[in-house]
Design a protein that fits this description.
Blueprint: H1 2-25, H2 38-62, E1 71-72, E2 75-77, E3 80-82, E4 85-86
Antiparallel strand pairs: 1-4, 2-3
Helix pairs in contact: 1-2
């Protein structure tokens, strides 16, 4: 459960990291408050939220088994553990 959460946090931080790289490439002050005006932070936050929402939708759409599949739970046959499968 922690991996998807960390993945989404990472996706959220992508626009901020790209802007920081942009500031470094232009040799502007990365830690200077004037390099991070409120309208830029707002735009980066909106872009981050959109990226996160799109990634969550894509994750829900393309992961997991098809809707018509049947899950057979793990069980023991002849003393051997048979893993769960989706058919």
């Amino acid at each position: 459960m922690i991996r998807p959460v960390i993945t989404e946090i990472g996706i959220f931080l992508i626009p901020f990291a790209l802007y920081a790289l942009f500031l470094l490439a232009n040799k502007n002050g990365l830690l200077v408050q004037s390099s991070w005006p409120m309208h830029v932070l707002g735009g980066l936050t909106i872009a981050a939220l959109l990226l996160t929402i799109v990634s969550l939708v894509l994750l829900a759409h393309f992961s997991g088994a098809p809707p018509s599949s049947t899950y057979i739970p793990a069980h023991i046959e002849n003393g051997k553990l048979i893993p769960g499968v989706e058919k």
